[in-house]
Amino acid sequence: MKIAIFAREVREIWAERFISILNELKARGADIVYHKPFHLRFCRQNKTTLPEGSFFSNHIDLPEETDIFLCFGGDGTFLESLTLVREKKIPVGGINFGRLGFLTSAGTPGGDEWIARIFEGNFNIEKRSVLAVNSDIFPKGFCKYALNEVSFQRQDPFMLSVHVKINGMSLPPYWSDGLVLSSPTGSTAYSLSVGGPIAIPGVKALILAPIAPHNLNVRPLVVPDDAVIEIYVESRLKEAIISLDNRSISIPEKELVTITKAGFELHYLSFSMDGFIGALKEKLMWGEDKRNY
């Protein structure tokens, strides 16, 4: 079994456990492929070596025959995994070395029994929608996909006027601090924080949720996931910020951005028996009420 290993960093408190996991994978016969920039950084910072393996540096040289892509960290690390896996249909499993770990569900208090489950095939694969973003502003090499959301935000004290078309039909402008366009996976992230609804992954919908709208009658809007959504912003200082998950760049006003559902899905490796509902209860304390006990 070929297993890719990726992390942005592994803090010192996790280093020993991380090496132990890698040794266990090798003992079970795994062919490990390391993200080379992380491998070099980890070995240098910890003055150590890691079990033998090969390397990849980006989405181009990530081997197509990789069976599982493991990312170690928090949800931000998981989101960055999309930039490496993209359309390759490699199942992505998140090992929680971070804090909340909504997407990185393995390795929490239950321990590392997930290792055996990988080799037994005892896991589920959930197909998660991905957003494709098209605009002339993106620099060469910028990954134009997002798993959670695409957001438009002010970068100065003045509100934005956000203009949206859905399949060619114009919505009233959003006078606000910005706008979040979320996938069902992202409905528990930024969209949730600005009042958007929770959508179970697999729902064929996208969520438009304004950020701090200066209007009492503006509400989040749910649209079909096959819609073509066009967005541009107007700003007093002629500029705003566009973010694809945790990657951001400046965008000039009136620069048109077109967002659609990507032609591929991310294959999310889940070890939870309770799935998405279980994650809501465990991570976000959904329904927490002393009357339930």
UniProtKB/TrEMBL annotation:
GO molecular function: NAD+ kinase activity
Species, as recorded: bioreactor metagenome
EC number: 2.7.1.23
Keyword Secreted included in the entry's annotation: no
Signal peptide region: none
Protein name (Swiss-Prot/TrEMBL): NAD kinase
Protein's GO biological process: NAD+ metabolic process; NADP+ biosynthetic process
Keyword NADP set for record: yes
Entry keyword set: Kinase, NAD, NADP, Transferase
InterPro entries in the record: ATP-NAD_kinase_N, ATP-NAD_kinase_PpnK-typ_C, NAD/diacylglycerol_kinase_sf, NADK
